[in-house]
Give the backbone structure.
Amino acid sequence: MILLKSLTIVKLGGSVITHKDATPPKLNDTNLARIAKELKTHSGELIIVLGGGAHGHQAAHLHGYANPNSPKDQLLKGIPPIRHNMSNLSSSVESYLNREGIPAVVISPFTTVTLKNGMIHSYPTNIIKKSIESELVVVTHGDVCFDIERAASILSGDTIAVYLAKELNAGKVLIGTDVDGVLDDNPKINPSAKHIPLINQENKEIILSKTGPSTNTDVTGGMSKKLTELLELSKQDKEIIIFNLTVPGRLELLLRNEPTICTRIQS
């Protein structure tokens, strides 16, 4: 295992960096420009993981990726449009970062990752490691990948963030969403939903029972799957935080280890 305790992994939620309900997919240029400026304040190794947002979920949903019984030929036909959209998204993010002087390079999962029944089967990280060692900032993203059982499946950005945090022994994982971390109800439906500042072994069961899929078109499992993966990761003594990436300054504060509204996940 490579030892990169100074490595930070930042997940940029798709609902923040794209207009998730826009058809055809559309970037949220305002948010991307701001986020790039906040990321520029970071010093140390960095991996940026992109959620698919409009660019990933719409095409995936259209080609049956949310249905485990979809025929293989339908899934395979979805690969080109999903790849096209995600390539456009990642290239745009790379451009925003490069403009801020961040030496970002895109490494797409499709070219190397293999899944089995939707789970990671093979995920080589040698190029990612070499890029980090070369003082580059790696940009990767949720993607469609070949699946040895299902023909093709979706690999979510959240799963990537957790996997790379384990494989590369990252010290900090920041998950940016469009709400103030984790709440006890969906704030877009219930304005009185209460913020949960800490999730640990004592309260995880009741919190997981209240979370579910995203209200948007989402083929990656929603908040419940996200929390389950992050709780498992928390057993490795890492700093894990879910925060509102739509609020200016919060990402920068967390990169500087300063307090702000968020949800921390601990073992």
